[in-house]
Amino acid sequence: MGKGSDVSRDLIEIALACFLVGTVIDAVFGVTNRAVRSLPYLLGLVGSACLFALGIRATSSRPVTVNVTLLSGSGLHALRIDQLSGLFLTLLFGLSVAISACFVSWVMPRSREYHRGSAIGYLLLLASVAVILCASNAFLFLFSWELLTLSFYVLTSVTRSSPNQTGAAWSTVGMGKFGGAALLLGFLMLAGRTGSLELASWSAVAPGALLDVTWVFVIVGFGAKLGVVPFQVWIPRGYPAAPGPARAAMAGVAANVGVYGLWRFLSILRGPPEWLVIGVLLCGGVTALLGITFAGVQSGLARVVAYSSIENAGLILTAYGLALTGSAIHSRALIALGLLAATLQTCAHAVAKSALFVSLANVEAVEGSDDLDRLRGVGRRMPWSGATFGAGALALAGLPPTIGFASEWFILEALMQQFRVIDLPLRLGLAIAAALVALTTGLAALVFLRVLAFTFLGKTPTALERHREHGILNKVGLMILLLGCSLGAAFSPLEVRYIASGLIPIVPRAITLGATTSPWVLQPVFAGFSILSPSWLWVILPIAILAVFLATLLFSRGRFLRTRRVPPWRSATAGVRGPSDYTAFGFANPLRHVLANVLGVSKTVSTYEGEGSVESSKALRVQTRVVVVEPVETYIYGPLRQAVVGVSRIAKRLQSGRLNAYVAYMLVALLAIFAVVAAIR
Questions:
Q1: Is 429 domain-assigned?
Q2: Which residue of 99, 208, 261, 517 shows the fewest CB atoms closer than 10 Å?
Q3: Is 348 within the bounds of a domain?
């Protein structure tokens, strides 16, 4: 064993030891002793820093295999850490450092309600993610996958803060078990064909029906964790149910192991069938559109961010569909382009989602609510959290010069390479996916403009009172996330070079580096198509904004800065307060009307007597109630649930009968088995 293996082993063992000790501390002292309440999260920060360092080391060096002692069984377990593992270790545990820092400050105030098990679930999540990224065999991978599902259950059930908490926890663990079952079936098929549980040995599986079915199980299993349609129903329930910054860990860290799994199996298995590639492209586009559409009509900020996670899952899956297209037609350039676009979007999603959920945790702890209309002006009352949330929202809206703009530009440019694909069905699939993604990016700007304008930057009738944001580590974590969202685009050419090193197990680094025509200019791998310099945007945009402002002052002769007071008219204009004020709900009404068929909108209008003017003590008022219906949950899971309940009632009736009835059931079953066996022979 070389020196590099020793260092890697030491880093991962220190990290896992930190997570284990933190779990024990929370189980023994976590609630009763405030002095040690933050210690598990400090240990989580140290462990995450070790894994972050391990990721940087692995991405820039050769793959190593290390043997560590884990609690999953007796003896040593082999972990293989290659460039792809290093890439995801760098991203996910770099974020974990910031999230852990925010968690340390979040649990400290005496007035804050804290529940035993929060740190246990959080540290179990981090440990599971670390082992999944480094697992070299199916047993260790699936065991860690189930531990990750268990951590989700702990985090979504620990607070018991609302009557819907139980349903959220069970839907989260149910979808996690479903995804794990799909992976188990796929792994068993591959292991049965090769006679080995080592992931690397499965590359010997030849094309055929078994490989096609395995691809389906792999995409379903990892897609369920990522939150693609129709497996996304747990996300709007599960994320808001988790305590504080744990939501950031679920959405920004743990969910992205689904992305890692898709990348890993693209490096192991041979190309998928064409029909599956088209299905992935269409599923990604539909997921993105449904996610951002439902995000735009939510009244709770936590659900807005959760539905935005579904949108980003769709964008990532769509770009991954392009990589699958390249694999199906044996084009390494398309594989590199699709994976590069999808990985950039994964980075943007992970950083921005972590920023939003950490900021929201601070806001909810102070305001006691996540209602959009009740949080007006909260960005002014809490400047650190407000600035971080604003940077994350602009990144998810895909506006320049944020990291989200660079990643979404790459996805659209990648999908425009459809003319390089000869096969007509694949070209049509890429074209439809590109149209859905373009529509999604436009709606994303509308959705997050609503959140920023009416919530974080909105004005309140009363004077604003600033809230104190506790903890230096909290501010450090927020600053890391803010800089990641805003300055990530400025350094995106460097990110592309780092990602190219991480994708070496799938495509050669030289092909991926075709995206960098010069040190600060990017292109979609293929030369002569389109170029962009996100770095120069940070120079050009501020200069352009300053030039426009100065020109406005010059031509208006100073009138631009004067305050003009006019009588307000009863509409949605500035200066109107009370029932006629423009709200976040009212801003989303055009979206409800235009996409009523997608949202399943039902509207009821009722009248009631309210307070009137001076002349009349009573006045007739009109109240409109709008209900949005989720099509997947209503038309797929609703009938499925009714069918399961019906079968359960029949089974309950059968097991309450007489003894002679049971004997008759057994006789009928035995005769049926004999008939089937005879027919087979």
A1: yes
A2: 208
A3: yes
DSSP H or E segment with residue 233 = none
The partner residues of 609 in beta bridges, in order of sequence, read 620
User: Within a domain: residue 512?
Assistant: yes
Q: pLDDT value at position 123?
A: 94
Q: Which residues of 489-503 are buried (b: 16+ CB within 10 A; e: fewer)?
A: bbbbbebbebbbbbb
* 3-state class (DSSP) for residue 520: coil
At 485-537, the pLDDT tens digits run 888 888 888 999 999 999 999 999 999 888 887 888 888 888 778 888 888 88
Q: Are residues 605 and 675 in the same domain?
A: no
Per DSSP, 566 falls in state: -
What is the residue range of 597's domain? Answer: 588-610+618-629
Q: What is the four-CA torsion angle of 20, 22, 25, 31, rounded to 10 degrees?
A: -130
Q: Residue 256 falls within a domain, yes or no? A: no
Are the beta carbons of 457 and 379 closer than 8 angstroms?
yes
Residue range 141-191, pLDDT digits in tens: 999 999 999 999 999 988 776 677 778 888 889 899 999 999 999 999 999
Q: Say whether 68 sits in a helix, a strand or coil.
A: strand
DSSP assignment of 174-196, as one string?
A: HHHHHHHHHHHHHHHHHHHHHS-
pLDDT in tens, 77-86: 678 899 999 9
> Within this chain, do residues 603 and 536 fall inside the same structural domain, yes or no?
no
Q: For the chain, what is the domain count?
A: 3
Q: Distance (Å, rounded) from C-alpha 607 to C-alpha 554?
A: 52
500 and 625 within one domain: no
Same-domain status, 525 and 604: no
Q: Which two tokens stand for residue 121?
A: 């679930």
In this structure, are 624 and 639 located in the same domain?
no
- Give the DSSP H or E segment for 409: helix 403-415
**For the whole prediction, is pTM greater than 0.90?**
no
